[in-house]
Give the backbone structure.
Amino acid sequence: MEEVGKLILRLTTAGLILFHGIAKLIHGVSRIGDMLAASHIPSFVSYAVYLGEVVAPIFIIIPRIASFSCRSEHDCGDCPGRLPQHI
């Protein structure tokens, strides 16, 4: 039951972040670039938002689904995304 709770928490969090990333894909990151430029940071750094709000949630969602679907109790190493039990 604890695994299901963790899965729901990760999917919900990653989903919300991903929705923000999709909004950035649709509307662009020009506002963030303007804020960075006002702080004397190069505006191209704003494209790192895509990593944090699009790529990272996908990496959170996919391994969790793969490890949840693997019900094997043995340590075969063939299960994609299977994390050690102490994490």
About this structure: The chain has three helices and no strands. The two ends are 16 Å apart (CA to CA). The CA atoms of residues 21 and 52 lie 8 Å apart. Residues 17-64 form one domain.
